[in-house]
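example protein:
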Amino acid sequence: MSFRTVDYVEDVSPGSGALPPRAWYPSSDAASLSLNGGWRFRLSPTADAEDDAFAEPGYDSGGWAEIPVPGHWVLQGHGSPIYTNHLYPFPVDPPRVPTENPTGDHLRLFDLPDDWPDLAEDGCVLRFDGVESCARVWLNGTDIGEFKGSRLPHEFAVGHLLRPTGNVLAVRVHQWSAGSYLEDQDQWWLPGILRDVTLLHRPAGAVLDFFVHASYDHRTGTGTLRVDSDVDGRVTVPGLGIDVATGEPVTVPARPWTAETPTLYDGVLATEGERVPLRVGFRTVELADGLIKVNGRPVLFKGVNRHEWHPRLGRALDMATMREDVLLMKRHNINAVRTSHYPPHPAFLALCDELGLWVLDECDLETHGFTEQGWRDNPVDDDRWTPALLDRAARMVERDKNHPSVVIWSLGNEAGTGRGLTAMSEWIHGRDPSRLVHYEGDRTCRDTDVYSRMYAPHAEVERIGRGLDGGTRRRRELPFILCEYGHAMGNGPGGLADYQRIFESYERLQGGFIWEWIDHGIEDERYGFAYGGDFGEELHDGNFVCDGLLFPDRRPSPGLVEYKKVIEPVLIDGDGARGTVRITDKQDFADLSAFAFEWSYQVDGETVESGALAVPALAPGESAEVKLPQPPPAGPGEVQGTVRAVLAADTAWAPRGHVVAWGRFPVTARPVPSVTASTRPVPGERLITLGPAAFDARTGTLTAIGAVPVTGPRLDVWRAPTDNDDGAAWQTDTRYGPLWRRLGLQRMRHRIDAVETEGDALTVRTRVAPAAREAGLATVYRWTSDGDRVRLTVSVTPEGDWTVPLPRLGVRLGLSAADRVRWFGGGPGEAYPDTRSAALPARWESTVDDLQTPYVRPQENGARADVRWAEIGGLRVEGDPEFWFTARRWTTEQLDAATHRSDLTPGDTVWVNLDHGQHGIGSQSCGPGPLPQYYLRAEPAEFSFVFSELG
């Protein structure tokens, strides 16, 4: 075989040899053979380093490696992954790519099963569901074509080339190609055959392409089905008594498909040569009255952006992982997913059909890196590239058009503007007028049916809701969504409840999609999980790739738990004084009949009474006030009431009793802890004693309470800045993390001005301030005791010009022996001022280690909110008022210095923070910072703690 050129790699065309795109279906009665599994593999440094001889039958690949397909060779020991947010990791000179172009040759030898149909009579198709970024394919030595479009299917007719045994499938995959310029999504660059490879038998008269049109008329309660097919046949839906020819419409009474009630009817498309199972969902999507409506009703998207990710497998997901994602979404009240920024594995959409999620299906297109040159030479505004753009649009639409879950097509993401996008929009509108078209970059909405933005701050979103946003008349008459908001990088996102309140206040605002679903951390023995820069990349964007509601191992983060609470489908608003609870159905389509309701009363965080609560099956948007049983008799404790909405029966996505919503409300107030000062401080040569407490005589620092040694406490204002504290370098808004460092809050000095033992109190006067700055905090510690307990009252007065809020305000102390923690307060997970909706006041218990939130890049974490009391290391601490509680086996400074979890080494001391206040979190890693009401301003403050030794 002669040496071949590789001009196709830099050709802007989508490829050659592939069949026209068509609808995907998971199975039929036609034979199929999966070619997934072990493939022989050879990696070359350039596209032309090797000739084509490896594709010939009989080639000796004995010295090659073996890798699993689907997969990415850089995650299988061959080369390294690269992470960039938007920068191209090669010189921008479209369509040219570097000479250094890692190229993977793949070989798969296979025999046909003994029962495979006669090759002389029928055809066969070889299907690739995804290859990054450019592939050339040979079968039995014959070149059958090449293609680009990494997350899109490509099929080739191969029946004439197959043999009963000894078939040789050869695939050459190039990491870089002209197609790479169209695939600059915020993710790892991971070459390889990342999705399934399948051989499909195509008997005479087999199904080619078909389009299931299944609309629903909400006025008559009927569905109309018409299946257009390239090959004539019949359509049967036994559950509806349907038996009609293809192309013939039929209208019958039917239940509609929605994300809340995902009713699917099983049917069959039968042609002369094949029977294809259908799953039919009746629903109508329209732009009406300036709103996105489904089945005549507006929808509110409570969504998430989902990249495909697995910490070991990259984007090569298996069915179990995809199902786990959908189940987790449903269990956390998510109702919509944007397939950022490419069509997902087609089986994922089948799961969305089955379990119920609205889908914004996004094309495999992003050219974000051209922003570095003012969008000059952007392919979407270059007619040479338009055929490739239309090919990508067609392969998405044709593949996914029969999924009822798909309600909006998206042209792509962050690709600027241009003629190519207009061409895509026109083609999609013409091919499928039954769905809407989205593209966030189209600020005039010339080509789209939705006004979409990313990371707009709360105030701007509210102005848009009120119709005060300006812009073209067309745009002002369109519905609005936030296709990305709530950037979930590290600790956060904050402010979700505030966004949701705005969404629910204005009909034009139809919700949004959190960025994003999962951290893209790569499992790594050095760090636990690796991120950008950990593989020696010359260009990278660090841990910006870890910005999900799930940790890389798919454990829910506190951000996901918060989001679940914020978007609950039932609003539960209790009034303890009146003994009632107001229940509101916040769903768009379903009544409350799927839920059971439970009431309970808690005294000091422990449940003392509970029972079932009768709630009418309210329709969407309806409310009812329900009388609660009498609370327990008044006593010395704090009484709270709780109402929960749980699943009344098992569902496909969660068992009976799964909690979908809850409300907690006060009945009687919490008694404030008090200590009557009845013991005076006793000065000694080295110690001062006061009740059970001992203090250093020179500094007035607490050293012990009873037999419990204590280091501190002393004022603490520093926290290890979160990703959202630090913000993004490109943002023009104030980023407080860098300002805190510049001010020196991480290196505060503590000057002792006086230690006084007059009267019944030990008073220590100090000034806490950073070197090189005049601003400081005059801090007074006043200790009193009743003989058994000691009370610390901390008074803080800012001095000088404080131009920034504080990260935190409280005291830090050290305990030499501590493991288990008990507390009455918010839990079970962490919470901060603008991320506390899900913090349920109750009695909780944990180990110190389990209090930590394992963010991939270490940062401030683990605070429990609204704590009344906590018990740790032999001490009980009560707060006046409630406080934030944090405990960890390393100092804040050590946490701040760490870049990976593996950098944190537990010490001999457990450091405990008792905070009067915390600064909000926000989402400034790529969005707005905390709202002003969540700022911890440098203002005079006073707070108290009561310490006692546990018996």
